[in-house]
Please model this.
Amino acid sequence: MFRALCLAVLVIAAWAEPARADPRADQATCDSGTAPPDKAIAACTRNIQSGFFKDRELGVVYYNRGNANLRAGHWDAALADYGEAIGLRPDDALAFNNRAFALSKMGRFERAISDYSRALYLKPDHANAFVGRGAAREKKTDIAWTIADDNQASVLDAPHLPVKAPKAAVVEEALGTDAAAKAAEDLAQARRQLKAKEGELNDLLARQKTEKDASAKLRAQLKASQSGLTKLKSGLTAKDRLVAGLKAQVKKRDAEIAGLKKQIAKHDGAVAALEAQLTEKEAELGGLREKAAASDGTITGLKAELNEAVGRINDQGKTYSALYRKFGKYRKETERTRLMAKRRNEEIAELELHRMILGGAVIFALGLAVFGFVRNRG
Model:
């Protein structure tokens, strides 16, 4: 009983121990592009330090923290986070693009152009990379490449991107009249292609709305889960009180065990005394066994006399069996005689009945005759 009680205490104590925080609880804040930057940075940092995320998943966490640092204007921190993300996910075009953006903000246009180019190598239709590389080249006064990147960005993405073609005078001054005319023609072609892309943008916006609705449902489920967690914590408080009570019972049981140990020590002395008495009794038993061996001869003689008496009893039994058979035969003859007497008595009773009937009839006839005679005389 005591061991079962201790086991119950250990089980309840283990169950009541506060659960370790799940790193995925911070994942939504870390992934969010709309959460306040400081909260997103803190959530991502906890995810990184948890050791729960490995390899490519860890690269995503670094990428998200880089985005939060970028929104906060922490260019150096963003640059370091994107570097970690690229080390774990070298095929991530978005990480290269965003690191290039941070480099541009720091005025490091050469390296920014290199990262934008790597992003476009990994994802040739990445419109933001064209925009960023064009802006970096423009600030680096690389006018010809700037026009090409701006035109390509217009072809690939929607009007919400900050794409602006260089002024005609600047283009003509940098490239000449013929090249400027060709650039203008390319820009017109890009704008026609841009119009064709507007339908795709509308589809993307519709899908985005669906995803937002799904996100709202998930937030509602999260709120319900948090409410359930609050109830669970209340239950854990009650369990803590139960554990305290069980610990008090365990302490009481320990005191009882100490008393039992003292009683056991006392009983050990009594057992030793009983063992001494047992040794003495075994000696007495040895003497009795010797006496029993001496009595075996007497018992053998008595067995012989008993066998002789049994023989005589068997002979008498045979005599009794013969008498019993004669008695049975006599009893059967007596029964037959009794039945014959019974039948005789029945026959005599029947004859007596006939005699009485006949006598009655005679008396009745005589009475009638006397009655007729008297009537005739009168």
